[in-house]
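tool_log.txt
---
The assistant was asked to compare two proteins side by side. It first ran the structure predictor on the initial sequence, then on the second. Raw inputs and outputs are pasted verbatim so the downstream comparison step can read them without reformatting.
(1)
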Amino acid sequence: MLNVLIADDEMHFRNYMNWVLDWESLGMRICASCKNGEEVLKAVQEEHVHIALLDINMPGMDGLTLAERLKQEDQELLVVFVTGYSEFEYARRAVKMGADEYILKPFSPEELMEVMGKLRLKLLKRQEEDEQKKIDHAIVRDELLKRLIRLETGESQGELSGMLENLGVCFPGNSFLVSVMEIDNIYQMRKNQEDISLHKFCIKNMAEEVLEGKGRAHLIFSEYEDRMVSIFNYDEGFPLEEEVFPAWEKLLVLLEEFFSFTVTIGMGCTKKGGGQIAQAYQDARKALGEKFLLGTGRSILYDKERGKRTSADYYRAELNDRLLHALRKQDKAEVCTVLGEMAATVKERHLAQDYACMAMSGMMSICLSYILEMNGNIEEIYGKGFQPYTNLYNQPSLDEGIAFLKESLEKAMDAFKNTYSRRGIEISGQVEEYIQEHFSDPELTVEDVAAGVYLDSSYIRRVVSRQLGCTVSDLILRVRMNEAKKLLDKGDVTVSQAAELVGFGEPGYFSKCFKKSFGVSPKAYREK
């Protein structure tokens, strides 16, 4: 409801304005009726006024001076001058000075209705623009936070923090606890993204509520694969075990009590300094991954020693990235390669069935996430009552589990093969081919690649992101890492030589990227 203020020194006019229009039908109400400027200034302190109808010629403070005072206090306030013919030139001058409308006495209800209708549309448009700005702000904020926790190669922690500060996101404390939340059995429980989004909205609100007033700052946002991430910022010495850990337990109890689902929370080791957020996030993901062994509907604190004892960190995370990349490209051959490498790793390490099922379940989650990403319906693709995780755990052997997973992945790809962009395939293929031919150039940039395929750089960024699920910079790095791995497999080059051959001028940075990609340093990989 829009609040309208009337200011005129004539009582009969003020009374007339109360009933001349059906204000409620316009989505408006008269919130104040004033006889002079002093009453107006008092009224705007007590009510949020959207539109002020002011008489120019009032005793004491005239309408022009009053309008100037009102605009100084609230630039969003709309001012309409209601004036007689003798004051018409004043009204015209006032509009030039910033007043929004004027209307001449005497006026008909229709004339007033027209003016108020215009102002209502103006306010509604402004509100829509403000809401869109908030939505855009939230989208940009969440994307920056996703980049902050993953800290991809080439990203600067300081630069991302600065961009977040420009959006009003600050971390005044010196310590961090990063938690990753996941709805248990999410794909078996719900069929569409709308339901999942509603559940995540509930989790976000309740998580904010249980931690309200604690620490220095708390942010919670959606991550990939329908997970949610919490970054809790606090000062050293803050009692986490007494404040945050019980709050998470309370959240789990509330969610199970009021909703038909449970949530598992993985918590990383506490870290000092903003530069440690990405590592804390990785620890939290590892902790969350242990729910296959420890059970769902609980909070799990990352334990480095427990990870060593259980070999829970054996799994090559890059396989999941490659799998999602292959699904988006409709590359069935690469899907088979990824599955083969995963199976080989399980067999070579003689891992127990639980670990094999954990790896396959992770890939099944990627598959189902891809379907939702493509706005697909899981039930339409796999049939009613599809229970992928139960089926995986019930497979009598690794080979049969791999076969079931392969069939599920191929069905997902087949469901969307007709919607896959042929032009996008062609462009992304050209980009990959150019990078493959020029990866050894240490000065290779996205702009160079764009020029090489005769397209605009912003355009190929969008195409590659949509078709391959990564940035062009990610693609350059991926090619360089794969080529470096091939060189080290041959064993006839040093780590420094391999770095130079694939376009890295700094061996230390090359080693960092290699370890992030393959989980092992290039030196250790070469010597294995």
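(2)
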Amino acid sequence: MMQDCQVTSFQALCTALQHPALTADPQTVCCLLQTCRSWRAAVQQAAAGTTVIDLRSLHSIAKLSQFAAWIPRHAGMLAEVSLTLPQTEDDGLSTQHYATAAEQIILLALQNVAAAAASAAAGSSGTPAAVPQLLRLQVFCTDFLSGAGLLAFLPAATLTKLSVKYMGGYPSANSPAISQALAGLTSLKELSLQHYYAEPIRLSGRCLQAVSQLSCLSALCIGWVAEDADLSLLPQQLQQLELMVVCGKQALQLQHLTGVRNLKLELRGAPAPHSSLPQHVALLTISTWGDEDTDELEDPTALWQQHNLQHLGLGSLRQLVRLQVINGLAEPQMLHRVACLPRLEQVLLCYSHSSLAARAAPAWQHLPQLKGIDIEGSTSAMLDRSETEEMMQYIGAATTLTSLRLASGVMLDYYPICQHLRGLQQLRELELSHAEGPSLQRDALNLTALTGLTQLVLAGATGVNDTCAVAIASWLRQLRHLELRSCGLVSAAALPAIGSLTQLRTLVLDGHAEAELEDEDILLLSSLTQLQAIGAHETFSDEAVEAFVHDLHIAQAAEAPPE
């Protein structure tokens, strides 16, 4: 094929390759590189530092080796490389063995690039054609790193974003070699250092010392750090910080980070007295997790103490605009103080324990900035009937809500909760799952009053039968996202009404295996030409869904405006 190529104008090829459709797609780039010498040279020039390689789906060591062999010849084209562990074992290797092999393969490729560049700099290359490709990588992401090797060969001059998940624990992450390699990446603007597994294995001060030397860094994610870590080492110029901290007797001191506007904290345990946050933070997310046995605590007061944020100084954050808290704000007095913040516009409260939500519930109606409530409990700590009724009354009084999610294990089965939601006229997103799904048709019909909903998710809602589903589709005309999972549908009677929601982007009808539905009934949804995602597992056959999606794509292509 190379002999048949008749293109002779190098400049013309470079001009053609300025179109992003040609150089942005890695497969297109690889095809052009195999065409002829002229195309190869033009692509290498036009796509220099612009090619994004995502190896998320590359589960074969053999294929990864092929990519590694490709790197030294075309290193200058790479802008971003992402390496992700496969979800399933491939090539007969365990996850750990795959990660070790893959890391060594990529390391060898980077070493070859560096060796070729060093050889050229020493004057051993003869002709201009032999000048090697220089690595101009801007972004490197990997979730399997066990040593400093890869970091040492990344280009310090061009790399602006690094995301790393360590394998095998933090002994390697805390090594002097890794700290030295990090300190050398002086152009970094975004850095994420986490552990592949969720255990709070603590990062040492040596690594924080290396991070403190990165003067260009504006966004940082670190998890986890020990309670006695010197957080004053965190760079003062940071604008965005995500930090996971194991709290203890030492105060959490972050007030020196005067540039931070976006802060995410994940705390294991409650912060100690005299803790402080950056005073100019505008966007704040805090997740609190107790000790390993917290989920087994039956005493609500003891549980609350594991998640207490009273020493964090939330009431002093005068610039705060948006606040999201998971478990931490369970004390009504703290919510009242938060409500007084002058610039606060949005509060989202999430609880993974029903008792924490019940403790905070009386204050919800007095928090005008409250926009979202998300409660997910456990079956071992469900609220009884009187507690459920009281909780729903407080939710119904929180009329500023735009989002509400009640998941399994929060409340007593079969309690008619939808009757309390009719007054939430600002609600746009609603999810009721499993025990919280309405089990009675007359209660489920209360949902038709929520005419502003754009997203509705119902799971295990046996009260949503064909009649109720028709009513929901008829009244909730603003829906863009509808999920009815394992509800009370028994026939195709509701499908025409659902099919009339022509603005739907997502539709899920999973779990209706016992309904009297035929595969051809899915055609009653053919008018949903705006769908981007559909799920109908155990409701229609996989073949019927695939055929429906195929026809849908054809219809969408026909309606698309010409470029």
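---
observation on (2): The chain has three domains: 10-121, 256-395, 413-563. Confidence is low (pLDDT under 50) at residues 125-129.
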